[in-house]
Amino acid sequence: MHRSIRTLLFGFFLVCFSAVAFARVGVVITVAPPPLPIYEQPVCPGDGYLWTPGYWAWGDDFNDYYWVPGTWITAPEVGFLWTPGYWGWGGDSFVFYNGYWGPHIGFYGGINYGFGYFGVGFEGGRWEGDHFFYNRAVLNVNVTDIHNVYETRITNTNVTHVSYNGGNGGVTARPTPEEEAAAHDRHVGPVPAQTQHIQEARSNQQLRASVNQGKPPIAATAKPGEFSGSGVVRASDAGGHYTPAADRGEGARAESAPASHVRDLPPVQRPPAPNTGNPKLDRKYQKQQDKQYAQQQKERDKLQMQQDKEDARVAKQNNEAAKQQVEQRHQQQTQQMQQRHQQQTAQMQQRVAPAARSDSRPR
Length: 363
What we know:
Elements: H1 2-21, E1 28-29, E2 38-39, E3 49-52, E4 55-59, E5 64-68, E6 70-74, E7 81-83, E8 86-89, E9 94-97, E10 100-102, E11 125-128, E12 131-135, E13 149-150, E14 164-165, H2 177-182, H3 192-203, H4 209-212, E15 220-221, E16 235-237, H5 245-248, E17 252-253, H6 279-317, H7 320-359
Parallel strand pairs: 6-15, 8-14, 12-13
Antiparallel strand pairs: 1-9, 1-17, 2-16, 3-6, 4-5, 7-10, 8-9, 11-12
Helix pairs in contact: 1-7, 6-7
């Protein structure tokens, strides 16, 4: 019994580790996601629930975007907040950067998801001790049932429904220093209820963009996975003109887009704490992970500084051929460094794995 539980925990650890370490690898397509639909937020179902905004995901098996409804969900840890995922233009295709839980809000593309997620940070509430306090001016909470509330009105002047960063027509935001610092926190991927919620959305044909024309009939839910009943909210309208992928004549593929510059890479994610079941061994591996993380960050910073200097120098030359040569070299450097870091991370996983399996033996 103990062995099976620890095996499951270790498997969960590896899934979380992979989601954090390889956040950029995933679905990559050349079709822009539809604008964010317009909808109201369902009432918070109870104290302790946090809002996670809806977004467009891509179904590579049916080549279409589908809407993942916004929903209320409990955080995996006290003090953790949800940083939404977002679509970003990678130079020749769109890349989805996964959302995560952590002690601070990180960069989510500058996308205005509404309900406190207005492009930077989160204005919907805050943790005070072991209780979450809701900003009733932003979030839809029943103050008769939930008393830990406050009211701070936010002026959201830059109302846009664009759902991606970069590229033609995308949001032009870049990470703030605070968001870059948040990328170095310990992060946790979507909790099981969120994963189930996504799968429910994926299997619902009414949520596919080609069917709902950017106006999903289930825009938000009171609880994850509950796609029927009084807690379901319909979209009142699409956020803008919807152009089907077929009409664009553009293809899609499931692979990782090559980054052409270090600055195009997502921030380095700090790996989760080892959980072998042996505290002494965990501390040992934690030190090794911290050292590896610091070294990788140092290498990235050094290469980015070098590439920025070369970009500035070639820009003054006004020589298109030289510019292309530098861009090709930068792309090769970036990909080689990214592959090397991924291999190092995988090797670290392999060192932890035998220890976790060994410690899972019955005592």
